Automatic annotation (TrEMBL), chains A, B, C, D:
It comes from the Eukaryota. Belongs to the chorismate synthase family. Homotetramer. This is Chorismate synthase. Its EC number is 4.2.3.5.
């Protein structure tokens, strides 16, 4: 459905070809300083039309808060937010209406809903993610106040050009420990903090753009200062909720955290993260972090990091042999220009979903912990 | 929490060191033939102690249905099921009680719950999965009646020995189309249907077993005959629920479906699955299946396939340098013998979670579809 | 929280002193004809300022549909709707800001949320019900298409002037069988279809209005043509969901269905509803209807009827001795004129909540029933 | 469905004619002292066969805790509990199998589920409430530790013999302030603390018992020391959840809290509860308590009290004219002896549901409050 979360919960609405898109955020704690200025930056980062590498569709995407705040502070009541669709042209796709776009949602939406929408895949549009990003910005503010939680995502591969993501690689761990959003954005539209591969990534995208083709990539995300104890065994382990959140994003193909798929090849004796005493934190930490900050489904205070695979965009301008809805073979070419790689734009969306997962997990754990303390004999 | 699903819903209970483990299945349709004989086989497949490759801990794991059926048919009321813990020895881990096991849940459970359980990681034990497998067996029966849905999982890699999982590889597609549980089980404890790599996998496990070490692997799962239209945009896309389900399993590190992480390197023009008319099915199908049977978060009738990464087991018999709960450095060695690879045993658990996701998604879609038809003017 | 329902689900936002109020409706079946014209009538019926008996606060309350429909039909995606707050004056209550209004939500909201909102009781305002009414209008349309379901509420008592609500009274049963919204609205602002008591009710309200006081009342609601089989044992029995829905409305004090509290005095031999064969319907019906259309938590096809108690409005213009937030005794008088009885305005709100409960229950039962049929051997 | 609650959540299973009945309690805080001895007393109070006024069906109803505790303390993991059905005789009702019992769930269950169970109404049996009572006992223990919360229910009317329940009656308020479970149980099977009406109640029940008939009644419940701030606007107001909980009990017909239905006749000027400063508590309290301890859906620290109407039991031994499933007129008489009034036995069940509602509401509020404090600048 269109709701996500248990206590800190978001419900979204809107598709590309309607009046507006937005969300309701339930469960936000009262007393949080919050205005549109807190929400807009991530929406702006998500916005298309920011560079020659991405789609020219221009949207202002100005968010409005309709409820739930007063004098710049949250009341604890639902926060309604929306963004106008200024650029919707319901007739735009009409020429290609005979064809379900390959690897797009057009055909499955009709099978599921029994109706055909102007946009084809209705809610499968990336525009649906605006509500998520707006809600995520609120969650981020809560987390920042709670424990100075930092969430930073970046592009770690484009096509076959990839950063070294080996969890035991020192450079990679350094990036995870230090990378900021400013750095990620400062390096141009590609949003990859590794200058060793960045140039090459740009070239790859340009190559596919010029070929009227598209190419996928991987977004890696790190969470620093995550409170210890988040995640709910057994079904709502923290990695399970993160995987759910990430695979609910359009165009995703995979998720891995910590050592990930590569970790299956590392024997336990090397993969296990030994405990060591940290004098500064006055608690146990782990010497290595193959666990990716989560053990037994619960955050352990180390950096949480994970990667999300984004497929090559399904909508391409070059001609494709396929079939019409009625089954006649034919050739389809999407009109206009299309994003050769959605991966860089996914960065703030991945951050938003991460914040939603963590904020909800935090509030559930707060419930347990505060109740546990209130029933304690001491 | 310990519940999963919206309409077809399972709630589990139990840890290793208590009286029993089990579940309640809510929302099962009435009139389904169901006895313990339907549930036991998958529990038996999940059971440890089946071969010299796995742990000798011997459990009978006989399931009992407590409610929800009469004369061998479901009533539509909650189905209570349980399995006795026959082998629980709360004192067993006492010697190592000073140390949180590295990369295990011991330390995070204490941080989260504020209490220390005999088993250390409480519900993080693989024994918790019994309730899932029992519930999954019910879901599978529903799906089999609905559309002859077939769910088959198998080991596709152990350590660095791997089947070719390229979605465009013909051998791999052949396996996905034809593999049966009988075949998977018939090839010995390794549960890999590819004879080209099977022997080598066994050797890898034996090597790590002999070294008192452990090694991870990948389980691949295919769903055939899945009804079209399952999965709920936007947050509960079918792949999102599958990812959630899989990453909620102990020891998992990643999930990918269809072309997965490798698919990020294939340009859109080749990655897109063109539509073709299928005369037999009298509907559109896709020529290739990089989408893994899911488009826009919705099943499209092609085979659904995905892979799940399982890390090397955290509990190993060899000595590990680590620290005690109080932070003193020391050396820990788990007593007794331990499973060098949990991956083969994960096969029926992956199948169970898949069935739970699909059965719930099917019942939600049935709700929409039946209501849509009942409000139609025709 | 601010969400209600499992499959057909509404989430609302907004309080009196913000930009707008509204809702998101999830789970609406696709293909339903729906425009603002379907939603506006119930909002208009809910609107204050319609007669000299009610508050002069004038709101246009024009609803706008933001998403989820195209060309006048639902897509199956979330339906976002909102109504502007045109008359909000955040400073309006300032003079009485020192006092928590007695029997209002001012004090408890501060205790709960730790912040004080301009409106005092934040979401406790009747304005919050706009989102419910908008969502209920959609649910009603579904139900009307499904089985010509009719939901009609009316005022059955004001203060101590009451219709005879004895379930065995013929006149009362006649009203339940025939009353329409047109009749209810046609008899003036009091919305009581019984001309024997209507005049007296008006006089009672006028008396309390002139005394700057308020008076409560009872709203009775009947549902005709409800499909058989709705309601989910054991916790979500149909009457339990209706009770939940009704008691979630501002100013309610009680709920009873069928014979209600009076029914506790009727012995089983008379209270039981004997079954009889109905030739027209070709099924069993009941001779009497003390059950109020629900048996074992499940609708039985008879008329569902229930009553909801509304207390005398807490905000009155006369002076009240009470205390300030700091505990100093003093005298409070609300400024301006206030509704002497909210009961008549509650009529469309009760109908809306009823529709929301039934539509969700219907879609859950459709899920079970369609799945049951799909697994049947025949 | 068969689950209730959001954080502190119970899922129940079992009907009369199966192996056992029970529940899983999720979300219980860790570190709570808990053994079967804490749960058994309320189950024993619920048990039939305790007096000549109630049904002779004899059940031992010994509860067993299967998981979630160790060494007498909760772990924070799900608590599985069950009670064996020792007295189930699936053939017992066979003679009357031709007739759906009037005002019972037999007919609606078949309509809903499409299958006929041995017990007729499946989960509509009072035996289903065992899981609720077991879970409620856990919730009560939490609440008692939290703030010494006391929950006491008692019979306030049988047939037309009733205590004075006027909220402004001094004797009634005295009872609410002081009544204990010991007192309620100490006065014999009728469980009414008012000696002025108790004798007469017993006579009423005896009269109907001798006439092979049944009679209904009202159970009133008071909660003392409830923490302030519980209840979730807008849909999950505390009274809404209580109403939901109560109307989900078998045989209930109505719910009212505070002044209830009678309160609709009291003008606002008298109904409003003025605030006064309480020197002992160092906070505002209310002079009167027509609000029943809940304002704006949120507990205000005063006593919460409400009443629940229970209908006359549907199963009676005297002959009733009715129809068979096929529609033939005939006469039905239930075999054996049946409870002439279920009302006294409902007392511990009402208490259990109250505890479940409050414990969940408390934990949700703890989540908000603890998070609010953690984001505060001070």
């Amino acid at each position: 459905m269109s709701s996500f979360g248990t206590i800190f919960k978001v419900t979204t609405f809107g598709e590309s070809h309607c009046d507006s898109v937005g969300c309701i955020v339930e469960g936000c704690p009262p007393g949080l300083a919050l205005t549109e200025d807190d929400v807009q930056p991530q929406l702006t980062r998500r916005r298309p039309g920011q560079s020659k590498l991405s789609t020219p569709r221009n949207e202002k995407d100005q968010v409005k808060i309709h409820s739930g705040t007063e004098h710049g502070y949250t009341l604890g009541s639902p926060i309604g937010m929306s963004v106008k669709n200024q650029d919707h042209r319901p007739g735009d796709y009409s020429e290609t209406d005979l064809y379900p776009r390959p690897s797009h949602a057009d055909w499955t939406y009709i099978q599921k809903y029994g109706v055909k929408s102007a946009s084809g895949g209705g809610r499968s549009s990336a525009r649906e993610t605006i509500g998520r990003v707006a809600a995520g910005a609120v969650a981020e503010k809560v987390l920042a106040k709670v424990n100075n939680v930092e969430i930073v995502a970046f592009v770690s591969s484009i096509g076959n050009v990839s950063m070294n993501r080996d969890p035991q690689d020192e450079t990679f761990q350094k990036v995870l420990q230090t990378v900021t959003r400013e750095e990620v954005d400062g390096v141009g539209p590609i949003r990859c903090p590794d200058e060793g591969v960045r140039e090459e990534m740009v070239k790859v995208i340009e190559k596919y753009r010029d070929a009227k083709d598209s190419i996928g990539g991987v977004v890696t995300c790190v969470v620093r200062n995550c409170p210890i104890g988040l995640g709910e065994p057994c079904f709502d382990k923290l990695e399970a909720k993160l995987a759910h959140a990430m695979l609910s994003l359009p165009a995703t193909k995979g998720f891995e955290f910590g050592s990930g798929f590569a970790g299956t090849q590392i024997p336990g004796s090397k993969h296990n993260d030994p405990f060591v005493w940290d004098e500064t934190k006055q608690r146990l930490t782990t010497k290595t972090n193959n666990s990716g900050g989560i053990q037994g489904g619960i955050s352990n205070g180390e950096n949480i990091y994970f990667s999300v695979a984004f497929k090559s965009a399904a909508t391409i301008s070059q001609e494709q042999e396929t079939a019409t809805y009625e089954g006649k073979s034919g050739v389809l070419a999407a009109r206009g220009r299309h994003d050769p790689s959605v991966t860089p734009r996914a960065v703030p969306i991945v951050e938003a979903m991460t914040a939603l997962v963590l904020c909800d997990a935090y509030m559930i754990q707060q419930s347990r912990n505060a109740t546990r303390l209130s029933i304690s004999d001491n």
